[in-house]
Write a structure and sequence with these properties.
By secondary structure, the protein is of the alpha/beta class. It folds into two domains: about 190 residues, 3-Layer(aba) Sandwich (D-Maltodextrin-Binding Protein, domain 2); about 100 residues, Periplasmic binding protein-like II (D-Maltodextrin-Binding Protein, domain 2), CATH 3.40.190. Helices cover about 45% and strands about 20% of the residues. It has twelve helices and nine strands. Strands 1, 2, 3, 4, 5, 6, 7, 8 and 9 form a nine-stranded mixed beta sheet that branches. Strand 1, helix 2 and strand 2 form a beta-alpha-beta unit. The longest helix has 26 residues.
Amino acid sequence: MRRHWIRAAAAAIACLAVSATGALAQGSTIRIIVPFAPAGSSDVLARVLQGPLQDELKQTIIVENHAGAGSNIGTVDVARAKPDGSTFLITSSAFVVNPGLYKNVPYKFDTDFEPMALLPVAPNVFAVNPAKSGINSLADAIKIAKANPQKLNYSSPGNGTTPQLTMELFKLKLGITLTNIPYNGGGPATQALMGGNVDVLSTALPGAQSQIKGGTMKGIALTTAARWPTLPDVPTFKELGYPDIDLNTEHFFLAPHGTPQAVVDRMSKAAQAVLARDDVKKKLVELGYLNVVSGPAEAKARIEKDVAFYKNLIAGAKIPQIQ
């Protein structure tokens, strides 16, 4: 009789624990960590999704920027967070590039996280500030770089981002030198160009599109297959004769490893529902994203594929690893 009572009590405690976890997952404030400074592609995307996700989940969502070390700082913060359904990560392709670019990556891409969804993709763009640099085209930049090998520099959202990798591949292809000035996100990298602190900007389109459209800086090449609908005057690398320069910035929605499957499924379904909304799709295109909708299985497979791809690309291009 006593054993029966103990088993019943244990079962009741277990039920309470499960209920508490569910209540926390559905009733608490959710933090979405972006491992870059404000105004870059990951940050802009997180803030576009913030309101619609709040409506879908009926929970308060806050976006926090934990920038630094090519996104590694914020990424590790999420990896170490309690897997209780209150902390998530929205990050860029740096997540899959860093395992090949950094000698020691402080997170394990395949065991420290629960993939929930692939998020919209952003093309990468090279841009200049003609008033500050005198550069008006990609051909101008190449000509100056060849004539003065140590003269030009460029800003990027950070080491390990696809804008940085895009420029490094372009340099290798042309045999030219531009010094990378890495920032903690697309926002600061764009401001560096606007202020005349660098000669060229390589960044994801969403963080630079408004300035290009407004004429305060000039887009000189895009990684898209065809010209972007809202930037008809910006040529593509393909039409300029460089079809291999086609890396885009992907985005991933991740949870810390150990987050209950029910929470992962709930967040994934909410993200997919939001990304299927016509108003959200329209807004994303206007900002410079290609919409993507997927679940955990697709996200997991894409991450594994991309990590292998970038490791091979970095090794094949002989891009030095970062210590």
